[in-house]
């Protein structure tokens, strides 16, 4: 595969729509058959609202990185510091890592992962978790980057429930190249 030039940087409020588009379309391509189709279609229909929510999160939390190609968002991460799972209260968390399907295989996901890990280390975390939807083919990617499935958790929503595998990363300073 040929090299692709991309940039990894902290997200700005102007990136919110791009992040929302990547989020909605990657959910549609990655989770079709794993989550209800109506839910996936609703995310596409709700892009303006999702973009507004993401813009506010970027302003309030400063917790997104984006990958851009020709100044267009093609991937992103969202992270939590500390994580949302009380069983790993001292850990950081990558809550989302998505890259548009046509941009897989160029190192963008790894670069987003590493930028986010570096930020979590700077915020004082030594460990990290990622929740991965059961059946998601990217589980192998997360394991390849050093994660070990240590638990599962059920996410219950109004319209559905799902099982997520919890991946734990120990000594995340060693994950940064």
In short:
The chain is α+β, with helices and mostly antiparallel strands and 177 residues long.
Evaluate the radius of gyration. 16 Å
- What is the residue-mean pLDDT, rounded to a whole number? 92
CATH superfamily: Gcn5-related N-acetyltransferase (GNAT)
| Low-pLDDT regions | none
The number of E-state strands comes to 7
Query: What percent of residues adopt helix (DSSP H or I)?
Result: 25-40%
Total number of domains:
1
How many H/I helical runs?
Answer: 5
**CA(first)-CA(last) distance:** 22 Å
Structural class: alpha+beta
CATH architectural type: 3-Layer(aba) Sandwich
CATH topology: Aminopeptidase
Q: How would you describe the overall organization of this protein?
A:
There is one protein chain. With 177 residues, the protein is of the alpha+beta class. It has one domain (7-175): Gcn5-related N-acetyltransferase (GNAT) (Aminopeptidase). The protein is built from five helices and seven strands; from the N terminus they run βαααβββαβαββ. A seven-stranded mixed β-sheet has the order 1-2-3-4-5-7-6, with helices on both faces. It is globular. The protein starts with 6 loop residues before the first strand and ends in an 8-residue tail after the last strand.
Features:
177 residues, alpha+beta, Aminopeptidase
Detail the topology: elements first, then pairings.
Blueprint: E1 7-10, H1 16-31, H2 37-45, H3 47-61, E2 64-69, E3 72-80, E4 92-99, H4 108-122, E5 128-133, H5 139-144, E6 148-156, E7 161-169
Parallel strand pairs: 4-5
Antiparallel strand pairs: 1-2, 2-3, 3-4, 5-7, 6-7
Helix pairs in contact: 1-2, 1-3
């Amino acid at each position: 595969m040929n090299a692709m030039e991309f940039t990894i940087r902290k997200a700005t409020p102007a990136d919110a729509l791009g992040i929302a588009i990547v989020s909605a379309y990657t959910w549609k391509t990655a989770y079709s058959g794993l989550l209800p189709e109506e839910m996936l279609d609703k995310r596409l229909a709700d892009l303006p609202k999702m973009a507004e929510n993401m813009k506010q999160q970027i302003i309030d939390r400063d917790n997104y990185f984006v990958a851009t190609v020709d100044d267009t968002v093609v991937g992103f991460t969202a992270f939590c510091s500390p994580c949302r799972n009380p069983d790993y209260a001292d850990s950081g968390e990558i809550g989302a890592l998505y890259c548009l399907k046509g941009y897989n295989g160029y190192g963008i996901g790894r670069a987003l992962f590493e930028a986010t890990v570096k930020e979590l280390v700077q915020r004082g975390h030594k460990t990290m978790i990622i929740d991965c939807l059961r059946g998601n083919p990217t589980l192998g990617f997360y394991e390849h980057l050093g994660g070990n499935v240590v638990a599962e958790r059920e996410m219950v929503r109004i319209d559905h429930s799902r099982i997520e595998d919890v991946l734990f990363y120990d000594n995340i300073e060693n994950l940064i190249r």
